[in-house]
């Protein structure tokens, strides 16, 4: 088959599926913003498309997202049209629709099967104590318009794939029936426990399994992923656990999913001045912000962690959570919808979203009982291998899904 992947940051969610298709003999191509020249990666021909420069957005703020998505869609369409004019015609187009890139591809290749990676259909939630909207009623209207690109693309698609049932169930019922729930997969053979793991922080401090490490990590530290709740738990936690070392990994500037911090500061700079004076004397030296970590260092952090904290409002589920479970890190997470299908009482602890005191108490109890925490981590690893293993379960299921829909 001729298979065309569309993702602004390819390979992203397709980093295992695309090479597997190429390895079995399919002709695999990808259009992306990530490269600036054609390149070959694991058998996949990657071609760039470029966005037009210098055009200022001057539309209503509620449709800024759609304006950006149409801009990307046009740029992707022009690159795809060049391929069509050269004689290329894919049998299957597998696209992430979140940035609008696949909006016009069915017009170019009406005979191709368009398949969508259905990451999230935005739904208004109850007011969030960690990430309050300035006007909740207006926010509901903005979120409705935020789905316009989904509503334009779903009718064109033959089928969809979603990594979790929660994410699939956010989509409207007429299309939900065409979405298969298959996770991207976790390489549990590579992401395994390692008693000898060590992490050297930028300060030069070396941490290993003998240290009482509490870890927290996100691509960007922002309220919708719980940075405010976590930082607010630290005074009580560090008072109860005077030997704990807290490592908070991720970019501090900007935001990935929620609003920018007030005054253009980072969310760390917004919260930390409020929290630092409340810490026990000297405890601030036990809180570390190493920034974003390289893959090997991030895996080492998970492996040495006595308790890994994962917090999120109802939203897309991070790979990092399943990676932490795969290396048998004891996980304390928010009692929110995405976690309910992953964690059980045997494999993790859930705490109420927006309750720093409950988080601190649960963390302190976990650190105080290392034998129980170790058993929880081992149960979590067994569960991840049984349900989310890449090579034995998820990748074969993705290949079978693609073949059946194509």
From TrEMBL:
Q: Which InterPro entries match?
A: Glyco_trans_1 (IPR001296), Glyco_trans_4 (IPR022623)
Query: Which UniProt keywords are given for this protein, alphabetically ordered?
Result: Glycosyltransferase, Transferase
**Which Pfam families does this UniProt record tie to the protein?**
Glyco_trans_4_3, Glycos_transf_1
Q: Which domain of life is it from?
A: Bacteria
Q: Name one GO molecular function term.
A: glycosyltransferase activity
Glycosyl transferase family domain span: 25-190, 216-382
Classification via PANTHER family: D-INOSITOL 3-PHOSPHATE GLYCOSYLTRANSFERASE, GLYCOSYLTRANSFERASE
User: Under what name is this protein listed?
Assistant: Glycosyltransferase
Q: Which organism is it from?
A: Pseudooceanicola albus
């Amino acid at each position: 088959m001729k298979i065309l992947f569309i993702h602004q940051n390819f390979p992203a969610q397709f980093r295992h599926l695309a090479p597997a298709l190429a390895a079995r003999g399919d002709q695999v191509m990808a259009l992306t913003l990530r490269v600036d020249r054609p390149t070959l990666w694991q058998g996949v021909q990657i071609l760039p498309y470029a966005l037009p420069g210098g055009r200022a957005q001057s539309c209503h703020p509620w449709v800024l997202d759609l304006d950006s998505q149409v801009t990307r869609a046009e740029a992707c369409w022009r690159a795809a049209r060049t391929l069509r004019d050269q004689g290329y015609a894919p049998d299957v187009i597998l696209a992430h629709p979140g940035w609008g890139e696949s909006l016009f591809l069915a017009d170019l290749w009406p005979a191709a099967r368009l398949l969508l990676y259905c990451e999230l259909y935005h739904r208004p939630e109850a007011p969030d104590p960690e990430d309050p909207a300035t006007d909740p009623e207006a926010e509901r209207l903005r979120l409705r318009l935020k789905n316009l690109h989904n509503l334009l693309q779903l009718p064109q698609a033959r089928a969809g794939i979603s990594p979790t049932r929660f994410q699939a169930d956010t989509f409207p019922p007429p299309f939900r029936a065409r979405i298969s729930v298959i996770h991207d997969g976790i390489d549990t053979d590579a992401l395994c426990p390692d008693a000898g793991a060590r992490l050297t922080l930028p300060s030069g401090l070396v941490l290993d399994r003998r240290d009482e490490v509490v870890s927290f990590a996100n691509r960007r530290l922002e309220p919708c992923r719980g940075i405010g709740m976590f930082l607010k738990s630290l005074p009580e936690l560090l008072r109860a656990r005077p030997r704990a070392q807290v490592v908070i990994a991720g970019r501090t500037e900007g935001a990935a999913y929620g609003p920018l911090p007030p005054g253009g500061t980072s969310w760390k700079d917004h919260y930390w001045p409020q929290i630092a004076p409340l810490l026990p004397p000297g405890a601030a030296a036990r809180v570390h912000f190493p920034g974003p970590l390289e893959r090997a260092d991030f895996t080492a952090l998970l492996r040495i962690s006595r308790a890994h904290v994962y917090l999120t409002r109802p939203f897309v589920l991070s790979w990092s959570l399943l990676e932490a479970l795969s290396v048998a890190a004891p996980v304390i997470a928010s009692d929110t919808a995405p976690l309910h299908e992953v964690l059980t009482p045997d494999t993790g602890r859930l705490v109420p979203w927006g309750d720093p005191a409950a988080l601190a108490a649960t963390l302190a109890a976990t650190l105080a009982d290392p034998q129980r925490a170790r058993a929880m981590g081992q149960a979590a690893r067994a569960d991840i291998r049984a349900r989310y293993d890449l090579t034995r379960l998820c990748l074969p299921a993705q290949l079978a899904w693609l073949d059946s829909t194509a």
